[in-house]
């Protein structure tokens, strides 16, 4: 499996990674690479192994097996060498509660020996909260401060572990714009998320994890193309026996017809032709490839091996 | 430079937290001044013993107990994990977190010992030994703080987890004040806290420099042992 798209040396390279907590295997044989400027999304349910994978890639954990390289270095052994070029947005934000927003940002830039970046509070929409202590911030505001800290260091690699969890829709979109800006500037981003629309919107490549393993990998288009597309219509008048011969499987519920097919264009053409000939109103016609939500639900429904 | 940046932030945090401020700044100095006013025979005979107990109390409250509490709080907030993901070295982080507490106790120590000198009409015979006693005592207190924080889940839990360390500390102070001969002397001085106490007493009351060698060596060894153990056991982030 290889997600490298346009660069000789990957920014992040994970090979056959395994992580264990005692006898429990949290991550089992995971491999992927991320090129500079690429956004790679790891999807999965709670406990799928996403956070463990990120924490190992950041260098906070040692792998039980396999290798992790960030900009060619072992992140556990070379934590300090990488710290200046790698940023992390974690699920827990990790601030001192009694420092203000501005003090937190200045502490971070000082630790990285960078000039003060007071402009960042504006960019993450926290200017009105600059003098407020972190303890008084909402969950969403803490996440935005976390993002500001990541932006401050202009990182070559950003590990973003569910960065938009708890954000309102406007803040989510603002975060997406900032992540896009980072990738445009060449930052490699490893994003974990529960939000499938987020992955579809942002990711160059997606890996879906289930019970510690990568079970799907590719672009969003590649992953969805491997699953049946769906056509839904509410025909009036509707006689199921009069339907044309279709490649896909049909199901009827509450007067609504659903066709799951691997031949989307051909079946759609047959259906439209049938409706035109018979004077059938197809009602609320919808047709498209499988969504990540559907693929996800399908995976979750599969029993553990 | 990084340690200084962290120390400035840590000082702000200490000043903004009332519980920490009381434990670090008010309680130790109040205890130390109360001791000056106490009517204990051994202190009347040996002003150095009074100075040693005062310094020991300051280090115990101001550095050991406070650092255990603040480290547990910073870890609970994932602040330590954040610092570990910065370019700051481990030494800088430790110095930045512990430095302000040691500095506060150093200032308190100067004030308290100046008062003791005035009250008893005496002065340290070997001030350089006093500096060594403070340095080794502070190092051991910081190490003991990190070590105790390894077993302390929350800042509230620190009220319980510091008890064993406090007992050791107090035993060390008592051992440091008692006079033993031969092997018993080395054994007593090996109790953490005893070395700096004996050094302070010698520094104040005077005596042969050679008598300071054993407590100095044992003070360094106790601090090093606590630091090594803390380095092995201390966790920078909460258990999963």
From TrEMBL, chain A:
GO terms for cellular component: plasma membrane. PROSITE patterns: ABC_TRANSPORTER_1, ABC_TRANSPORTER_2. GO terms for molecular function: ATP binding; ATP hydrolysis activity. GO terms for biological process: response to antibiotic. It is a peripheral membrane protein. Transmembrane segments: none annotated. Keywords: Antibiotic resistance, ATP-binding, Nucleotide-binding, Transport. It comes from the Bacteria. Its main location: membrane. Residues 12-236 form the ABC transporter domain. It is found in: Cell membrane. InterPro entries: AAA+_ATPase, ABC_transporter-like_ATP-bd, ABC_transporter-like_CS, ABC_transporter_ATP-binding, P-loop_NTPase. Pfam families: ABC_tran (PF00005). This is ABC transporter ATP-binding protein. It comes from Glycomyces lechevalierae.
Automatic annotation (TrEMBL), chain B:
This is ABC transporter permease. GO terms for cellular component: membrane. The chain crosses the membrane at residues 20-38, 50-72, 93-117, 129-148, 160-178, 216-234. Keywords: Membrane, Transmembrane, Transmembrane helix. It comes from Glycomyces lechevalierae. The lineage of its organism: Bacteria, Bacillati, Actinomycetota, Actinomycetes, Glycomycetales. Residues 5-170 form the ABC-2 type transporter transmembrane domain. It comes from the Bacteria. Its main location: membrane. GO terms for molecular function: ABC-type transporter activity. It is found in: Membrane. It is a multi-pass membrane protein.
């Amino acid at each position: 499996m290889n997600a490298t798209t346009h660069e000789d040396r990957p920014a992040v390279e994970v090979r056959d990674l395994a992580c264990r907590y005692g006898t429990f295997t949290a991550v089992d044989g995971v491999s992927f690479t991320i090129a500079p400027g690429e956004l790679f999304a790891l999807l999965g349910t709670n406990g799928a192994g996403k956070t463990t994978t990120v924490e190992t890639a950041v260098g906070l954990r040692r792998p039980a097996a396999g290798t992790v390289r960030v900009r060619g270095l072992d992140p556990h052994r070379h934590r300090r060498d990488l710290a200046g070029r790698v940023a992390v947005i974690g699920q827990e934000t990790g601030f001192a509660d009694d420092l203000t927003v501005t003090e937190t940002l200045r502490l971070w830039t000082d630790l990285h020996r960078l000039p003060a970046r007071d402009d960042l509070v504006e960019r993450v929409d926290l200017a009105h909260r600059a003098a407020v202590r972190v303890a008084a911030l909402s969950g969403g505001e803490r996440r935005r401060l976390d993002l500001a800290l990541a932006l401050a260091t202009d990182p070559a690699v950003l590990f973003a572990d569910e960065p938009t969890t708890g954000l309102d829709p406007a803040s989510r979109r603002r975060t997406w714009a900032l992540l896009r800006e980072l990738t445009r500037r060449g930052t490699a981003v490893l994003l974990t998320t529960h939000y499938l629309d987020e992955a579809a919107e942002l990711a160059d490549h997606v890996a879906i994890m289930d019970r510690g393993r990568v079970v799907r990998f590719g672009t969003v288009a590649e992953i969805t193309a491997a699953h049946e597309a769906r056509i839904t219509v509410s025909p009036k008048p509707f006689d199921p026996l009069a339907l044309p011969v279709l490649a896909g499987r049909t199901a009827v519920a509450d007067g609504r017809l659903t066709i799951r097919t691997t031949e989307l264009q051909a079946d759609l053409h047959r259906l439209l032709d049938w409706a035109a000939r018979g004077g059938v109103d197809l009602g609320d016609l919808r047709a498209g490839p499988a969504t990540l939500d559907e693929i996800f639900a399908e995976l979750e429904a599969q029993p553990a091996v | 430079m990084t340690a200084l940046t962290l120390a400035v932030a840590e000082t702000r945090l200490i000043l903004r937290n009332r519980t920490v401020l009381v434990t670090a700044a008010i309680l130790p100095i109040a205890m130390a001044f109360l001791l000056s006013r106490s009517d204990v025979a051994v202190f009347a005979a040996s002003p150095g013993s009074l100075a040693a107990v005062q310094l020991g109390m300051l280090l115990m409250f101001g550095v050991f107990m406070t650092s255990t509490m603040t480290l547990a709080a910073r870890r609970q907030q994932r602040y330590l994990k954040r610092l570990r993901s910065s370019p700051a070295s481990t030494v800088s982080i430790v110095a930045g977190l512990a430095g302000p507490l040691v500095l506060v106790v150093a200032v308190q120590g100067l004030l308290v010992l100046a008062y003791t000198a005035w009250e008893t009409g005496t002065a340290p015979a070997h001030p350089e030994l006093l500096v060594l006693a403070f340095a080794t005592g502070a190092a051991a207190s910081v190490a003991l703080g990190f070590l105790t924080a390894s077993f302390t889940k929350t800042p509230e839990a620190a009220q319980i987890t510091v008890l064993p360390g406090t007992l050791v500390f107090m035993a060390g102070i008592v051992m440091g004040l008692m006079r033993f001969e031969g092997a018993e002397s080395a054994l007593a001085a090996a109790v953490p806290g005893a070395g700096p106490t004996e050094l302070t007493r010698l520094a104040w009351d005077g005596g042969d420099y050679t008598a300071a060698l054993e407590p100095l060596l044992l003070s360094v060894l106790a601090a090093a042992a606590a630091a090594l153990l803390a380095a092995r056991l201390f966790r920078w982030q909460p258990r999963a």
